[in-house]
Amino acid sequence: MGRVGNTLEYAIYHHQGTGIYASEGNGRKDVPWVYKDPKSGNFYKTSGTKANPYLRDAVESERTKVEKLLGGG
Q: Which domain of life is it from (predicted)?
């Protein structure tokens, strides 16, 4: 058994998408919305961000190599 992951707090949002672009359709529907960046104090308006499933893509692209390394392929 293996594990692929990311410890960054925002990784899940980058991977799965947010708002109307959430990959499983469970994102925020009351769009657009405004949020304040805690570091800069600037306000931003958004409808969400598209998913970038980099972890899934990495697993799929390396599956054969990993199976061979583990003796399963």
A: Bacteria
Q: What are phi and psi of 31, to 5 degrees?
A: -115, 160
Residue 1 has pLDDT above 80, yes or no: no
Q: What is the pLDDT of residues 27-70, one digit of tens each?
A: 999 889 999 999 999 999 999 999 999 999 988 998 888 888 88
Token digits of residue 30: 């009351």
Phi, psi of 11 (to 5 degrees): -55, -40
* HEC profile of 27-40: CCCCCCEEEECCCC
